[in-house]
Amino acid sequence: MFVDHSFFGFARFGTIDDKVEYPALLIRNKHISYNDSVLNILGEKHTLTLQFDMLLRGNPSNALIPLGDYIIIPNGAQLLLRAKDIINTINAVRDKYGYSKLIYLQGVSDPYLLPILVYMGVSLFDSSLFELRGLKGEKFTPIGIVKTNADASKENLNFCNDLLKSISISIENGILRDVVERFQFSNKASEILRILDSRFYSLSETYFPRRTPRISASSLDSLNRPDLVRYREYISRSYRRPRGERIALLLPCSARKPYSTSKSHKMIINALGRLRPYVHEVIVTSPVGLVPRELEATYPPGFYDIPVTGNWFEEEKEMIGSMLISFFKNNSYTRTISFVTEDLDFIKEFLPAGNVFIRWDKSSNDSLVELVNSIKEIINTENLQLIRYNFAMEKYIQIATYQFGEWIEPYLKDAKIKRIYNSDMLILDGDPVLVYNEKLGKFTINKRSAQWFLENKKFCVEIDDFKPTANVYPVGILNATEDIRQEDEVVLHYKDEIRGVGIAKMPINAMKQLKKGTAVKVRN
Amino acid sequence: MINREFSGFIKNLMPRVQKKVDLDSPVSMWREMDRLGGFPEKTTVVIFRTTGCSWYNFSSCSMCGYFNDISPDVGIENLYHQIDHVVSSLDTEALKVFTSGSFLDPLEFPLSAREYFFSSIKGKVERLLVESRTEYIRKSNLEDLPLDAMKVRVAIGLESASDSIIINSINKGSSFSKYVAAAEILKDLGVELRTYLLFKPPFLSEKQAIDDMLYSIKKAQPYSKDVSVNPMNIQSNTYVEYLWKRGLYKLPRLWSLARILIESENSGVDVVSYPTGGNKERGVHNDNPDPQLLQLIYESSLNQNFEDLKNYYAESDRSLYERTIELESLNLLQADYDKMIRKDGSFIIN
């Protein structure tokens, strides 16, 4: 019997029979044995008939061996020769069994594939080939395999165990993706990750958490993280700027997040002074692409870190370029002004005609003066009128729309902002409806606003007839709307009667297929 | 009793076009040591070129590539010429006759050719061995054996006493009970039986394969004059070659073969092994070449004296081998993991 403790997309961290944590390395003769056709996995015994040639060809799922709580993929060594084969096979297992079984992949000989394989959903490995390599003097080290003359089988097992332990911790802490990106000693690991991100994006996105504690973007592979792609697609396709005549002002990013708390952005904001209501600030950067000022504190724009070099990769330029094109197609402005550092010169060609390009020279105030004069000039020539906006409200409506969808906007038409206990809340008829969590850059919902979600069938988890208190287990879940991702705010209801609100803690398919583990963490 | 999908797959690997060959000469002929008379002696071996094994019409055994030597054009006249060729150069009292199929199959080796062959070797050959599938071992088909003129031994490829291995791993199109029935007919006629076993058919781990041999020797012992353990060798266009080329088949080690011989010393039947392709890439070999061990296996088989082999086995450090086959045995898919590891693309520093 296994229980999941936490998920990261396909990856799961949990315990089997309260004694073995997974992802696990099954050690020969300790956890697993195979003698006289009897396979013993953690005390569960199964008699196996040989699978013979069925293992070797045709539909890869022909080779699957279901045994109790486990699905064994016996031909790992063969499948791992081609990234596509292992991906297709694991997808086939998921299609057939979902989260109901733990995947045990045999035949893994490259220890540096462990993170990516766990990321794909493999929970169990065995010691066979890692020991075998050690026996022949191949010792696993943190930077690659070193050939020695000594038996390194014990060290290899320790290496793999330590690695899997760290992987478990990273699942628990929501940063498995960063680990996988950083740990690419084998080209195969890179191949698998890149194929998952490209050809299997929509599948990966469905399972990928809505947010993680932080994004440590280390390489170009980070660009394709499903949560970043999800954000960029929102900006490119769905985002609509706040109303009113405005000048678009493109700015570079800052290391400090949210950007407006940085020294450089404070300088700009100060310089803009009373002109600020005439402009709509949009930050140009990688890996998030474009960040309208209102969304700067949300995830992911407020939660990433990237090596700063002053140079952009072609892929980044291309990404930013195509986002600019879509952005200005969907959002029109009186004029655009780019106020960017030299490294962002390349964006020129993607901007609408009539763009004013000012290079920001941080060594003096001259460029800031030029910016202010340009804005003033445009205000005069275009005869722009200053309209009184409620900027805080504008920001919150944009954040709520980004977080929940456009449908929520009408509900917030008459909302007011009230600050209670250091938090801004949106109030309707004197009652709080959404509470803004400044630290996380997101809203939390309550029973009052829950009704809207139910009316629109958004982020709804249908449960059995009980009163949820701390955690809701999947066994109590009847259904869940497809829009839910792990870490989303959700509404719990029984036959359209609101029973609570909380945060999704597993992918929806896991909620639907599993019995145990925490599906929704309830907020009281 | 066959696995149809398996059979069909093997059939597809068999070449459809036959090479041009000399129909009047045997495939090959040589002399080697054997002990048909219970003592080591020079023995002539001939492989007649025929139209091939009747099983080829349907499929083939997973390890057998003898279809590469057959020709559909071989006629009775050609067989007469081949027989003449053999008889003219025969200079040993012991003769082993192979075809790429069954000598006793009257369609493959017609009765008139069989009769001509027997009459040609009468007086020259004292001990004769011929090979056959079990279906041709019927009393009515064996009446012309020259039992009055020489000692005759028939060799049957049982391969394994386990039917599931015969069906799913070898595709023999036979079974243990058919073997037993044939063996009893031979016994009634006073014909000796040599049982061939195949050591390490595909899908079995080395450990399972050793167990399969020890079990099969025990099962064949009551019926056999001797048991010949044939370790796998990779023949062209076979299913085993298909697997082997892809790293999905691992050849057995000489240590394992030595162990089988040593452990069956007192099994009540002579157990021999003269490995084809021993110590070669396509035959039985240890991870590190060991010519002495192969030589000891030959000699102990031939002399049925296993003392030197046992001493060598006991005195050598086999720990790496022992642990390796233990580790390999955990895998449900028995690939050549040495090969697979070399292909896995892992990052090696030195």
Brief descriptors of the model:
heterodimer; A: 524 residues; Archaeosine Trna-guanine Transglycosylase, Chain: A, domain 4; six-stranded mixed sheet; globular; B: 350 residues; alpha/beta
Structure description:
The complex is a heterodimer of chains A (524) and B (350). With 524 residues, chain A is of the alpha/beta class. Chain A has three domains: 198 residues, no CATH class; 162 residues, 3-Layer(aba) Sandwich (Rossmann fold), CATH 3.40.50.10630; 119 residues, Roll (Archaeosine Trna-guanine Transglycosylase, Chain: A, domain 4), CATH 2.30.130.10. Chain A has 16 helices and 30 strands. In chain A, strands 26-30-29-28-25-27 form a six-stranded mixed beta sheet. Chain A has a five-stranded mixed beta sheet with strand order 4-11-10-9-8. In chain A, helix 4 runs antiparallel to helix 5. Chain B has a single domain, classed as Aldolase class I (TIM Barrel, Alpha-Beta Barrel). In chain B, helix 2 runs parallel beside helix 3 and helix 9 packs antiparallel against helix 10. The chains are: A alpha/beta (524), B alpha/beta (350). At the A-B interface, strand 5, helix 4 and strand 13 of A face helix 1, helix 4, helix 11 and helix 12 of B.
Q: CATH homologous superfamily of chain B, by name?
A: Aldolase class I
Structural class of chain B: alpha/beta
Largest sheet features of chain A: 6 strands, mixed
Residue share in helix of chain B: 25-40%
What is the overall number of helices of chain B? 12
Mean pLDDT of chain B: 95
Count of the domains of chain B: 1
**Tally of DSSP helical segments of chain A:** 16
User: What is the name of the CATH topology of chain B?
Assistant: TIM Barrel
Mass-distribution shape of chain B: globular
- Calculate the terminal CA-CA distance of chain B, rounded to whole Å: 52 Å
What is the percentage of strand-forming residues of chain B? 5-15%
Number of strands of chain A: 30
Order of helices and strands of chain B: HEEHEHEEHHEHEHHEHHHH
The value of Rg of chain A in angstroms is 26 Å
